[in-house]
Design a protein that fits this description.
Length: 473
């Protein structure tokens, strides 16, 4: 797998290659790729922006930390003038009039957005298969899924088309595809990165984060996208530290919690072996391993799917054929237009979730499902807090298995939901989670997940670097 890093991109630019040529190569690779990572490729726009940056660089202007770097953006992040479909027919021709804050921030640093990446419809899924615009394939084995929902963003980094990309993570959608594709993926603390311009799936769980080949590149991306934004009232006003500092400090004396609930039943033995080895490697560098308990982990799937679907049913009510979306043809009446638009243009999984979400919020069922799930969420949050009294970070699997075959779980929603067991509690508690590739299992990528207290991004990135350092010792 070609390791296209930001350092390598910078080396090429310093060696005299133009931004236009870098963008041209990335676009060429994207156009020829057989893995389906992109929904839209913005050839003209990207080349024009790259040429503008070349001119500014030649004029001696300081352009920014990502000057001329080709990047890719998940297709649920608004990009002004560039189609944003969320993998759905209902937004097939939606072109946003503004860009997400994260997109503005990347562009302000000179990044060149080359296109929008494939995803599960409205980010609902774990394989990128429930997407209206085609199959996305795993770069290591094209017969397997890349993970999801940010599958395209993981694939285009793993393939070496772009050094960095953005995804979103509501219940694992950055971390699980990172693990399945063998790249770094980071879900920041809820509120660390502005969600303005992210098409909402479940607003109390959604966060935006980067994919990259190295932890260092993720740290740089975090420097750029983190921080308060007045246009997202859940975004935090806390200062953003320089995440690139202290990355190489090591893990001597760091207490790493090993929650038994994540390492037991259901974890594939080969995945376990490679994860065990990565944790042992941290211990060899001076980390102290501490057994901890998170007993309510077993309720996380039920609580997550109730809360996420409830929020989704409300968020998706805005797609009515009038405001943003495509519309069913030849409606007989207004009601017919609403109902046919939604029945014909939403996919199966999205409709299932709108129905379940509406049900758990309805009078008579609200207390039994939604209110109870919120209480479970609070218990899960508290258990993490208690665990962090005994350790600094937690180390867990990202998923119980490696990537499975295309089609294997698509007709079994429950099996699909259950595969999210290792990632969703982190979103329920609003915590940051970093995934770093470790030794593959049976030839397929595996990622170790590091979970930290809220706003411990710097600590997680430093720990992630120590995971990465294996092989250099
Ligand atoms: N697989 C989970 C779901 O379908 C998580 C998706 C996500 O993080 N966007 O809800």
């Amino acid at each position: 797998m070609p390791a296209l890093t930001l350092a390598e991109t910078k080396r090429r630019l310093d060696g005299g290659e133009s931004c236009e040529s870098l963008a041209e190569k990335a676009i060429g690779c994207a156009e020829h790729s057989k893995l389906g990572a992109f929904v839209s490729i913005d050839r003209e726009g990207a080349l024009e922006r790259a040429r503008a940056i070349d001119l500014r660089l030649r004029a001696g202007e300081r352009v920014g930390a990502l000057a001329g770097v080709p990047v890719a953006i998940k297709d649920n992040l608004c990009t002004k003038g560039l189609r944003t479909t969320c993998g759905s027919r209902i937004l097939e021709s939606f072109t946003p009039p503004y860009s997400a804050t994260v997109v503005d921030r990347l562009e302000a640093e000179g990044a060149v957005i080359i296109g929008k990446t494939a995803m599960d419809e409205f980010a609902m899924g774990s394989t990128s298969e429930s997407n209206a615009f085609g199959v996305v394939r795993n770069p290591v084995d094209p017969e397997r899924v890349p993970g999801g929902s940010s599958g395209g963003s993981a694939v285009c980094v793993a393939e070496g088309i772009v050094p960095v990309s953005l995804g979103s993570d509501t219940g694992g959608s950055i971390r699980q595809p990172a693990s399945f594709c063998g790249v770094v993926g980071f879900k920041p603390t809820y509120g660390r990165v502005s969600r303005y311009g992210l098409v909402a799936y479940a607003s109390s769980l959604d966060q935006i984060g980067p994919f990259s080949q190295t932890v260092e590149d993720t740290a740089l991306m975090m420097n750029i996208i983190s921080g308060h934004d007045g246009r997202d009232n859940t975004s935090s006003t806390r200062d953003v530290p320089d995440y690139l500092q202290n990355l190489g400090d090591g893990v001597k004396g760091l207490r790493i919690g090993i929650p038994e609930e994540y390492w037991g039943e259901g974890l594939e033995p080969a995945v376990r072996t490679s994860l065990d080895e990565s944790v042992r490697h941290l211990a060899d560098q001076g980390a102290i391993l501490v057994p901890v308990k998170l007993p309510s982990t077993r309720f996380a799937i039920s609580a997550y799917y109730i809360i996420a679907m409830a929020e989704a049913s409300s968020n998706l009510s805005r797609y009515d054929g009038v405001r943003y979306s495509s519309r069913a043809k030849d409606p007989k009446s207004l009601l017919d237009m609403y109902s046919r638009t939604r029945s014909e243009l939403f996919g199966e999984e999205v409709k299932r979730r709108i129905l379940i979400g509406t049900f758990v919020l309805s009078a008579g069922y609200y207390d039994a499902y939604y209110a109870k799930a919120q209480r479970v969420r609070e218990v899960i949050r508290r258990e993490f807090e208690q665990a962090f009294a005994h350790c600094d970070v937690l180390a867990t699997p990202t998923a119980p298995t490696t990537a499975w075959k295309l089609g294997e779980k698509i007709d079994d929603p429950l099996a699909m939901y259950l595969s999210d067991i290792d990632t969703i509690a982190v979103n329920l508690a609003g915590l940051p989670g970093l995934v770093v590739p470790v030794e593959p299992a049976g030839g397929l990528p595996v990622g170790l997940q590091l979970i930290g207290p809220a706003f411990s991004e710097a600590l997680l990135l430093k720990t992630g670097c120590a995971v990465e350092r294996r092989g250099h010792l």
